[in-house]
Target: Acetylserotonin O-methyltransferase
Amino acid sequence: IVDLGGGVGALLREISTHCVNQRLICIDRPEVIRLASTHPKIEFLTGDLFSGALPSSDFYLLSRVLHDWPDEK
Model:
């Protein structure tokens, strides 16, 4: 499960209690990821939603991020 714009990983932390065998990846801007505390089940990566390659995943989360961008993006 990849959480795009996942902030400090709050949603994935909750998911990790229910999906114990899933690979969990949180992607956000470098300045946000620096604020995230480590978690044994979550991999934190810096990235951009609009450019660059994303990790391969069967499931991508876009929670509370789409309203931040104009429709053109």
